[in-house]
Amino acid sequence: MKLALCGRCDGLRIFWSLFRCGATVVCYVLPFKDDCLIVRDKVVLSHVPRNITVAPAADEAAFIGASSSNSSSRHVFSFGVLEGYKFMCFFRFKLWWMIPSFEDSGCEVPAETQMLLLETREKSTVQNGLFEPTTENSLYILLLPVLDGPFRASLQGNTVNELEFCIESGDPNVQTSQVTEAVFMNLGDNPFKLIRNSTRYWQSTKIPAHVDWFGWSIWDAFYHKVDPEGIEKGLKRRIKGGFPPKFLIIDEGWQNKVMEVEAEPDETDSPYHATSVDRLTSIEENDKFKSFRSGKSYANLREFVKFIKEEYGLKYTPCFNICFESFVKNVHD
Length: 333
Fold this sequence. Notes:
Elements: E1 2-9, E2 12-21, E3 24-32, E4 36-39, E5 42-46, E6 52-56, E7 62-72, E8 74-81, E9 83-94, E10 97-105, E11 113-127, E12 130-145, E13 147-148, E14 151-157, E15 162-168, E16 176-188, H1 191-198, E17 215-217, H2 219-222, H3 228-240, E18 247-249, E19 256-261, E20 276-282, E21 292-293, E22 297-298, H4 301-312
Parallel strand pairs: 17-18
Antiparallel strand pairs: 1-2, 2-3, 4-5, 6-7, 7-16, 8-15, 9-10, 9-11, 11-12, 12-16, 13-14, 14-15, 19-20, 21-22
């Protein structure tokens, strides 16, 4: 197994290649004058800051961290300059939605990027202080921002093509000056195998049983126009078609909300710019889910949920952001 680590000595970047042979680890120290992240002789990032740390995971995988002179609940660390390589990433363009983006420079990495898959088709060499590319086989590098203790991480770019990672606790009282495992990095020749193999580091996580159940999320069927009658019709159709759902996600449309205008539409804005936003006024069910009649009267959402669970064999009825179990304390699976 081969690992790539980096350290510093006398102002130089030191690259350590570790080769594990049974219980023996042999270290080769290679001085490198340019502050670059090099993977299999490929210059992936240049101008890597001195506060970036790399810790081995297994094989050629590693965890990226960083340190700061100040303690804070939120830090943004530069990872180095990213230029000349194509990449695909998934980022949160809304609080609850992710979409892909395909770009080729650090400034185009969106904020709140949750995964970045970098394709390096060129081998870069340093000549007279300049990087000269030569064609070689493709290599894929996967960057996954993960949890490091109470801190969550995400990737982003800036205007000078630096790739950054942001770590934050969400609590001003939970602060740190250092993280050691904020971003997971792995590499491989096949992007599909790379992603599959990388998830093995979290295989110890217990997978809940309902992952293997068939479920139905009503969002694409109703959006905000959901009502109890439509839910019942959808359940009946799926059961008749031979696909009875075991859990039902009532996604939006049941709460008490108001629509507020956030900004006027601007054709120069990003297509993902929201011009309006829903404001939650109460987690109590709205009028559509009160006094609904389907052969009998249901006074509230709890009674309706209890009915459809008993009538259609549902085991769970979670809701977007809020679990219905908080409303149906007396309803058992």
